[in-house]
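Hey all, quick one. A colleague (J.T.) asked me to put the adenosine monophosphate job into the tracker so the inputs and the structure tokens live in one place instead of scattered across chat threads. No bug as far as I know, just bookkeeping. Sequence used:
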Amino acid sequence: MKVITSPVEIQTVAQDFRAKQLTIGLVPTMGFFHNGHVALMKEAGRRADKVIVSLFVNPLQFGPSEDFDTYPHAFEKDCQIAEDAGVDILYTPNKKDMYSEEFATTIQVKGLTSGLCGGDRPGHFDGVTTVVGKLFNQTLPHIAVFGEKDFQQLAVIRQFVRDLDFPVSIIGYPIVREANGLAMSSRNSYLKKDEMDAALCLSTAIRYAKNLVRKQQNIAVSDIEKKVADTLLKHSECTIDYIQIVHQNTLQNCTQISSDSILLIAVKINNRIRLIDNSKLTGG
Ligand code: AMP
């Protein structure tokens, strides 16, 4: 596996792959790899000849009171994990090369970004779409793989790729979980032992909601949201940012449950660690 830091070099390498008729799969990440990232890397490997993983903690997508400065990192370990997953290139640009002092452009998706995480984290998705647009232009991928863990992010990326005619197929990959149900996340490393137990409330609440729907097909959306809130709030460490049942493509609130409904939850543990999770409410 090759490590590249220069945007010019990665673009040259990508052009060279394309000239040789090799397809490129990109997995954008912020590092501190876990098995969720590995699954995305392997999926890219199944779908493309060459896999590029970007590792860049993007300052544009963090709010002023968020964890940009403390975001976990373990570069040597990440290199080993990516290499073992069959990644061809780990692309780790630095901040100065990504955003010059004159940098003045934002990619902004309206509508889809206004609620849910966009409501709690103003400007977050503008940062995501802007960096992903840059990464696409630098790495010239045919496909790019994103996790359904960040469900709203995936919807927003699909939208800007459609709107701006990026010639990239966007692949969503299901949430990878710990054996106990907790959705894997780099931020799980912030959790102390007792907080880990509280964090499990997310996946427990999701299972509970799915059971409610299985047992009562006509249950009101507001009933599920209320019952999920009650389950989460049994944990004193947990505060709720949002619990919403939405249509999976539009992210608009559902009035009744259908195969298209998705439950999205964001909580804070001890007002310190923000965790998200989601699931469809019907089927498997
Ligand atoms: P991050 O490094 O947290 O920005 O995540 C990089 C990519 O990995 C994003 O597309 C995430 O949605 C995806 N991802 C993170 N955690 C998981 C998970 N538990 N399962 C599947 N994909 C994930």
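Adding what we noticed when we looked at it: The beta strands are 2-4, 24-29, 50-55, 89-91, 143-147, 169-173, 238-247, 261-269, 273-280. The chain has a mean pLDDT of 97.
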